[in-house]
Design goal:
Layout (H helix, E strand, L loop, with lengths): L5 E6 L3 H14 L4 E7 L3 E2 L5 H6 L4 H4 L1 E2 H8 L2 E4 L2 E5 L4 E4 L2 E2 L5 E3 L2 E4 L2 E4 L4 E2 L7 H4 L6 H23 L7 E6 L3 H16 L13 E6 L11 H14 L2 E3 L4 E5 L2 E4 L4 E3 L2 E4 L3 E2 L4 H4 L10 E3 L11 E3 L4 E3 L12 H19 L13 E6 L3 E8 L4 E6 L1 H19 L1 H17 L7
Parallel strand pairs: 1-2, 1-11, 2-5, 11-22, 13-14, 13-19, 14-15, 21-23
Antiparallel strand pairs: 3-4, 6-7, 7-10, 8-9, 12-20, 16-17, 17-18, 24-25, 25-26
Helix pairs in contact: 1-10, 1-11, 11-12
């Protein structure tokens, strides 16, 4: 009987998970290894772009990556499903039944064996127990949610455009964004970019003056990851666009069409987006006995192995990695997931070779926030610049755009990655500026 293949299962096809299976597939192929990616979606889109998908500025159909075709190219297998449970004794994961839109079963409950398991399922928005969030707010955690927001936004703009044409000059599209981090700030700016272009797409009397965006932050300022001066610059840019920035404002509950703040105003809203904080998926508590934080994140050691099981690794937003000498875990950023994916790849190779594993070393390369085509602000960190350097304007915009190009190369390799970068530039010229369907 031939030797059983070494089976490595990666759950989650986000930036870190997809990069990891590409590297593993390229190294091992299918001869002695079976690399399996499990994801509930059929395609991947880079999460930092979801605010552009939501505003209609980016056509996700042009930028998404189909897992099936990617798997064939790079020598791994793709399984469409959601993890239901992990059996650490039997070393198996069980996926929930896959259903179609009518609820009919496509694939039944399925068991997948693993020699090594990597959890890369990302995180979800933390509602902090605020009443009404799950019922009345929308989220930007994946493409379906971004598509849903875009459709609701377009419907609201169409209604407002019609109201102005039929004699109601006071009609407005009111959007409230809860959370002044990068997602909330970038979405607020992108909405005004989209609104400026809508009159050229059939909404004759609609423009950015018909849009009212409120950005609500509980902390003392927006963009706490950035230097205070840069955060103040971003706030000025947003207010110049027309965004109402409310810092030091705690949201205490959401109701239909209303955001209630503690001791402050009740903000009327046609659309509410919740972008405040990140935590692990609630399902993690019921799917296994792995050690978790209060925020449902998998506790990992510096090697990124789970604190509970040497054969299970975790990376990205779904894990909590507190390195020696630090008082806070590694922040949930795209650069963190990329660096973690590289280390998990190295440690999986070393584990199979019987070599000691390496500890994770986090390199903070700074933070950049794009205010659509209006501005970009941020800070860069690294040995090349001797510490921290504040950047804004076109330089910051160029660096920000390079992050996505680096992501394309990480998941596609140099040849295909560079080709897709060139195609992306062509699409910017020949494709419509907004996606309205």
């Amino acid at each position: 009987m031939p030797d059983q293949k070494i089976q490595i299962v990666v759950v989650g096809g986000g930036a870190g998970g997809l990069e990891l299976v590409r590297k593993l597939g390229a190294r091992y192929g299918r001869k002695r290894h079976d690399i399996i990616l499990v994801d509930r979606n059929l395609t991947h889109i880079w999460k930092p772009l979801l605010h552009e998908v939501a505003a209609g500025s980016l056509d996700a159909n042009l930028d998404e990556v189909g897992y099936g075709g990617h798997a064939v190219r790079w020598g791994y297998r793709f399984f469409n499903g959601s993890i239901e449970s992990i059996d650490r004794v039997a070393r198996t994961v069980t996926t929930a039944p896959l259903l179609d839109e009518s609820g009919a079963e496509i694939i039944g409950r399925h068991s997948i064996r693993y020699d090594y398991l990597v959890m890369a399922i990302g995180g979800i928005s933390n509602d902090f127990g605020v009443p009404g969030v799950r019922e009345h707010a929308m989220f930007l955690e994946d493409r379906p949610q971004a598509d849903r927001f875009r459709q609701k936004l377009l419907n609201a703009c169409l209604r407002t455009n019609h109201a102005h044409q039929t004699g109601n000059p006071d009609a407005r599209v009111r959007v409230s964004i809860v959370g002044g981090g990068a997602t909330g700030v970038e979405l607020a700016a992108e909405l005004y970019n989209a609104a400026k272009a809508l009159r050229h797409y059939g909404l004759e009397v609609f423009d950015e003056s018909k849009l009212e965006v409120s950005l609500i932050e509980a902390g003392p300022r927006i963009l706490p990851a950035l230097d205070e001066t840069l955060a103040a610059t971003a706030k000025q840019e947003l207010e110049a666009l027309g965004v109402r920035v409310l810092d030091n404002t705690q949201v205490v509950r959401l109701e239909a069409g209303e955001v209630h703040t503690g001791g402050g105003p009740v903000i009327a809203a046609d659309l509410i987006v919740w972008a405040a904080g990140v935590k692990g998926a609630d399902e993690l508590r019921s799917m296994s006995d792995l050690e978790l934080t209060r925020g449902n994140q998998i506790v990992v050691r510096p090697t990124l192995q789970s604190a509970t099981d040497d054969r299970i690794y975790a990376l990205g937003d779904c894990c909590s990695c507190l390195l020696p000498g630090r008082d806070r875990p590694i922040p949930p950023r795209a650069q963190s997931a990329h660096q973690m994916a590289s280390l998990v790849y190295t440690n999986l190779v070393r584990a199979q070779a019987g070599q000691p594993l390496r500890d994770f070393i986090y390199h903070d390369h700074g933070s950049l926030v794009s205010l659509s085509r209006f501005s970009t602000v941020g800070s860069l960190m690294g040995n090349l610049i001797g510490g921290r350097m504040f950047v804004e304007g076109w330089i910051a915009r160029m660096v920000y755009m390079s992050l996505y190009r680096m992501h394309l190369i990480a998941i596609h390799g140099w040849v295909r990655g560079v080709a897709l970068i060139v195609i992306g530039h062509v699409n910017q010229i020949v494709r419509p500026k907004l996606k309205l369907h």
